[in-house]
Amino acid sequence: MSNLTAGATEGINLTCGMSGSHEFIFTLVPIVYGCNFVIGIVGNSMVVAVIYCYMKLKTVANVFVFNLAVSDLTFLITLPMWATFTATGYRWPFGGFLCKTSAGLATFNLYTSIFFLTALSIDRYLAIVHPVHSRRFRTVVYARITCVMIWLFAFGLSLPSALTRDVINIKDSKTTVCAILHPSAENAEMLKKLLLAISFLKSLLGFLVPFAIIITCYCLIGRTLLRAKHIQKTSHSREDEVLRMLAAAVLAFFLCWVPHQVFHFLQLLTQLNPGKHCAILEIIDTAMPFTICIAYFNSCVNPMVYGFVGRNFRKNLLRLLRCSPRGGARPHPSISSKMSALSFRASEVLNLTVKNSSTYDVK
């Protein structure tokens, strides 16, 4: 990989110029980054503090939500640098190390965030659809092992993104940018294949596969809850709150990531068909900062969807804001605990119905 970084700071000439360089981007995007930074830092810090101080890491879902919030915080600390980079007209003043680190953390957060959301979806599927059989697998120990595996796997996937980024001098505009390495004569083919692999994995493992798993889990969860609701003949119960939360989680995930993934896929197509695509690249490079803003907003939405929807989380948040002692009251169960209890009752109802039907058939 050392050959790829050789000569990274040498000046290069751009075939299409600085595409996507518009004044409104340099003004609007840094403002959005700043809002994402403030909202995300406050929201995720509250999630970490509430879970650690009051709700504890004693449930599987709490472990995943805690790690998800830490992942978002790790990424959010880089947003001021990206805001500065955009506000100064794509000029990177922070050096090569922070360029690689920030780019790597952005990709790292993409994978960790989506992997933790997927782990939460699988956990909720097991808790609601298979509450009895999944008990031995849904333990805090297994959850922590899963988190370690997610961190390591995401680090491995994001490492190439960090290594293929560096500070580059643009001769035409005399600008120093933090960008993907420009291929030279000796490493052009190798770098092209590596960049294509990174883009392909980002689309496949960073969105398509996790999204398919999440949708499948939530559809099966919804079907189970609706069946239980139909059997119990209840109109407004706890199932409705759970279904609304699951729908909000899927919708937030979809809306935040789809725009970026669409333009990322178009960018991948331009890489597969090398040549002068200046008009297409102009559209992609102009839209990409805004799709990144929307994708980064997912780090702000996560605390709202997975934390603030829960009534007990809000109670514990008020205790935190009032600086109530940890032992002052019994810790409230997380929303996932309520979901597990609910799913166990729903499963019992379904099982009893099946047994009764079988008994009648025998008679």
From TrEMBL:
Pfam families: 7tm_1 (PF00001). InterPro entries: ATII_AT1_rcpt, ATII_rcpt, CCR1-9-like, GPCR_Rhodpsn, GPCR_Rhodpsn_7TM. Its main location: membrane. It is found in: Cell membrane. One of its GO terms (cellular component) is external side of plasma membrane. One of its GO terms (biological process) is neutrophil chemotaxis. GO terms for molecular function: angiotensin type I receptor activity; angiotensin type II receptor activity; C-C chemokine binding; C-C chemokine receptor activity. Keywords: Cell membrane, Disulfide bond, G-protein coupled receptor, Glycoprotein, Membrane, Receptor, Transducer, Transmembrane, Transmembrane helix. The keyword Ribosomal protein does not apply. Residues 43-306 form the G-protein coupled receptors family 1 profile domain. It is a multi-pass membrane protein. The chain crosses the membrane at residues 31-54, 61-83, 103-120, 141-163, 194-221, 242-266, 286-309. Receptor for angiotensin II, a vasoconstricting peptide, which acts as a key regulator of blood pressure and sodium retention by the kidney. The activated receptor in turn couples to G-alpha proteins G(q) (GNAQ, GNA11, GNA14 or GNA15) and thus activates phospholipase C and increases the cytosolic Ca(2+) concentrations, which in turn triggers cellular responses such as stimulation of protein kinase C. PANTHER family: CELL ADHESION MOLECULE (PTHR10489), TYPE-1 ANGIOTENSIN II RECEPTOR A (PTHR10489:SF956). Belongs to the G-protein coupled receptor 1 family. This is Type-1 angiotensin II receptor.
